[in-house]
Amino acid sequence: MTTEQTEQTELRPFHETVVEAIARVNSYDELNSIANLIKATKIPKGHDEIVMAWDQRLQGMGCGKHEDRGVPANLLAQKQAAEKAADDLRQSFHFGGKERVLMIVIEKIIGLIQNWRQPSPQARDKVTETCKLFETAKKIYSSKNERDFKIAIADLK
Q1: For the chain, what is the mean pLDDT?
Q2: How much of the chain, in percent, has pLDDT values that exceed 90?
Q3: Which end of the chain, N or C, is more open, meaning fewer C-beta atoms within 10 Å of its C-beta?
Q4: CB contact at 8 A, 117 and 123
Q5: Tell me, what DSSP letter sits at residue 139?
Q6: How many helices and strands in the chain, by DSSP H and E?
Q7: Which of 38, 68, 87 is the last residue of a domain?
Q8: Better-scored residue on pLDDT, 61 or 89
């Protein structure tokens, strides 16, 4: 793939691409590979869509619910954890949590910078994501009320 092709291909979130990958599964080996990938990946959103695609593909391949490879249960647990984390962030404002939320944003920024080893085609995306996190930190710090705070943390999920 050329650099020009790479730049024209827009990267999309895992929860969107995995739904398409599930729909293309043609063998039990592929199904197992995707199941292992899903269970090894932290998925912050799109859980219901993935479970729906998974159930449809199992049904299309003649598999029963007992052959779900633990994917729906894994995704349900991840969804619950993501919802709890989002609720914790929303509650942070009431408990002087601006500082706590800012620390979460700063940890994300540090993680991006630490994982940024060599310049790559994804470098521009990392710079953009880092800048967005700094903007989020600025909005959190300058929020004057709960409404502003909730707007500022909306993209952290």
Answers
A1: 80
A2: 33
A3: N
A4: no
A5: H
A6: 8, 0
A7: 87
A8: 61
Q: Please give the Cα distance from 73 to 1 (Å, whole number).
A: 37
How many structural domains does the chain have? 2
For residue 108, give both structure tokens. Answer: 């994300």
Same domain for 108 and 39: no
Mean pLDDT along residues 109-113: 72
The first and second tokens of residue 103, run together, are 């620390």
pLDDT on residue 121: 63
Residues 106 and 81 in one domain: no
Instruction: Find where tokens 């449809």 sit.
Output: 56
Amino acid type, 81: A
What is the amino acid identity at position 151?
Answer: I
Provide the residue range defining the domain that includes 128.
96-157
d(CA 42, CA 157): 12
